[in-house]
Design a protein that fits this description.
The chain is mainly α. It has 5 helices and no strands.
Length: about 140
Amino acid sequence: MPTLTVEKVVTNQNIDWASAERLIEHWNAAYPAMRTILDTVIAAQRKAQPPTVDLPRLERVRRELGQVDRGTYSVCTRSAPFFSPTDAAWLVRDVIAVTYVAHPQASAIYRLAAELADLAVKDLPPGIERTPEEGA
């Protein structure tokens, strides 16, 4: 059961309450499927000889997604817990990389990724603009 809350998301001052509520809806729809997908892929890859994916990376992604969900994720081990849409988006991207496109919950995961991408753009520091090569 997902535990990410609006209060945990708005620890990021660049995310307003309405955006946090929208994100929570997408998170709650996608997080259980992401956990199941990671658990399944990790279990299968532990048996594969040789593994076809970076197993330690997937284990880290699973651990860090759990931290994001609990609101205990820190960008740095010495910093306080903080919600980062950019870091969460990178984690979701890693789940998408091992998710079959026709998975029954793939659409929920892609919606979450899109919501995180929108929030990540808002989270850019003032004065930082994307270059034309990045699609500004």
